[in-house]
Design a protein that fits this description.
The chain is an all-alpha fold. The protein is built from six helices and no strands. The longest helix is centred in the first third of the chain and has 41 residues.
């Protein structure tokens, strides 16, 4: 018996013994797109909810730090300290925090859409990118707050104070040398 015939007989014998019909084999070859099981949906929803809660708590903490830093900048500015650079870093941090808050508010809706979808693996990449963008915004806000504090502690050297002290020194020396010459004062 040729080799192909033995395969035919073995398939035919399997069909006869186990009762597999052509309809059963065709039904198994169709793709199954049922989505996630209820337990998998619950696990993913809980995972995303925990991440969202941690992001929210971090955003609230950073926002409190930004408010305290703003009050400190007001106090330092009232004392005559140049806080322009520090304030610009603080504003950049506030913008990043607002963007993170806005994205974090969309997380629960995106998670619900992902787990109830018929193809959750495709939607998961979008949800993952969304969560990573929130993480990046929180990191950016934190870095800007650190820069703001660093510039407040070590303000950049102001060139106007050294120029005015140099001008007053040269003016006083010009007065002693040649009081009638105005070109040396200017």
């Amino acid at each position: 018996m040729p080799r192909g015939m033995s395969l035919f007989f073995s398939v035919a014998a399997t069909v006869a013994l186990f009762g597999f019909g052509v309809q059963h084999i065709q039904a198994q070859s169709e793709p199954v797109t049922t989505g996630l099981s209820a337990s998998a949906q619950e696990r993913i929803t809980n995972l995303v909810a925990n991440m969202s809660n941690r992001f929210d708590a971090t955003i609230v903490r950073l926002d409190n730090i930004a408010n305290r830093l703003d009050a400190r900048l007001e106090k330092e500015a009232a004392g005559g300290v140049n806080v322009t650079a520090s304030r610009s870093h603080l504003e950049a941090a506030r913008i990043a925090l607002e963007n993170a808050k806005q994205k974090a508010s969309e997380t629960d809706t995106m998670a619900a859409t992902t787990v109830t979808s018929l193809e959750p693996r495709l939607k998961w990449s979008g949800l993952r990118a969304h969560l990573l963008s929130i993480k990046q915004l929180v990191i950016e806000a934190h870095s800007e707050l650190l820069r703001s504090v660093a510039t407040l502690k070590n303000p950049p050297e102001a060139t106007t104070t050294t120029a005015s002290s140099t001008a007053s020194t040269s003016a006083s020396s010009a007065d002693t040398i040649a009081p009638e010459s105005e070109e040396t004062i200017i």
